[in-house]
Amino acid sequence: MNKQALVEQIKKKQSYLCVGLDTDLTKIPTHLLKEEDPVFAFNKQIIDATAEYCVAYKPNIAFYEAMGPRGWDSLQKTLEYIPKEIFTIADAKRGDIGNTSKMYAQAFFEQMDFDSITVAPYMGEDSVTPFLEFENKWVILLALTSNKGSSDFQHLRVDSEGTALFERVITTSQSWGSTEQLMYVVGATQAQKLQEIRAIAPDHFLLVPGVGAQGGSLEEVSKYGMNKDCGLLVNSSRGIIYASAKEDFAEAAGKAAQTLQQEMAVYLGEIL
Ligand SMILES: O=C(O)c1cc(=O)[nH]c(=O)n1[C@@H]1O[C@H](COP(=O)(O)O)[C@@H](O)[C@H]1O
């Protein structure tokens, strides 16, 4: 999917919500466990209930890999079930020496037709560029993550001017790909840094996970992170998909997604 199609969808749905499909067999309602593929049965109902309120889905690959071959099967079925106009993110956090990254890119962009993949920048340019060789596919590079451990490395000063490592990741990687193929991950728990990030990456889309279960504020993220195209995909996983653990789980997920979408429509009204 290209940037224009993504922006159009945001305007049409008045939403920049990404629903995280972090589907865990120990957390889904027990009545689904008798289904042949409980993970897909759960995802299918979640997608049916939330598709009108979101512009992206982000299956976290770990939750599928953890189940072995049947997990990959559930993932493939889920990807095929997602409506074509909705942006898909393989949250795989890959990145390796060039020829290995090329294999990861083939796995997620060719074998599976994801629109984008999350990539870790630690191994540098040649670990990222193999993912950028696919038309209308995106790399979402980890910049400033939402977790506590983000302070271990990402805030380290890398020069005498006090540039933080995450800022260097953003400025250096901008020469590897265009704003049509490169996004950055910035955790919602880091909203106070979004203004600084917008100063060095005004036009890039940002994937912002961490509202909901991790306590990030949608209001702050929107205030400091939006650009003229919106430029945000805000993810919530557990806050939506586990809104209820009972038989009404899909309805509850739909309501949770709708609540976020309605708040987003207000913020979008201020810029679009
Ligand atoms: O790349 C990510 O999506 C990601 C980056 C980050 O900094 N923090 C973060 O939580 N995530 C992912 O976003 C999702 C957040 O899930 P919830 O906390 O349940 O909404 C999980 O799939 C995380 O792996």
Automatic annotation (TrEMBL):
It catalyses: orotidine 5'-phosphate + H(+) = UMP + CO2. The active site is at 93 (proton donor). Pfam families: OMPdecase. Pathway: Pyrimidine metabolism; UMP biosynthesis via de novo pathway; UMP from orotate: step 2/2. Signal peptide: none annotated. SMART domains: OMPdecase (SM00934). Residues 16-253 form the Orotidine 5'-phosphate decarboxylase domain. Its EC number is 4.1.1.23. GO terms for molecular function: orotidine-5'-phosphate decarboxylase activity. Keywords: Decarboxylase, Lyase, Pyrimidine biosynthesis. InterPro entries: Aldolase_TIM, OMPdecase_type-2, OMPdeCOase_dom, RibuloseP-bd_barrel. GO terms for biological process: 'de novo' pyrimidine nucleobase biosynthetic process; 'de novo' UMP biosynthetic process. The keyword Lyase applies. Belongs to the OMP decarboxylase family. Type 2 subfamily. This is Orotidine 5'-phosphate decarboxylase. The gene is pyrF.
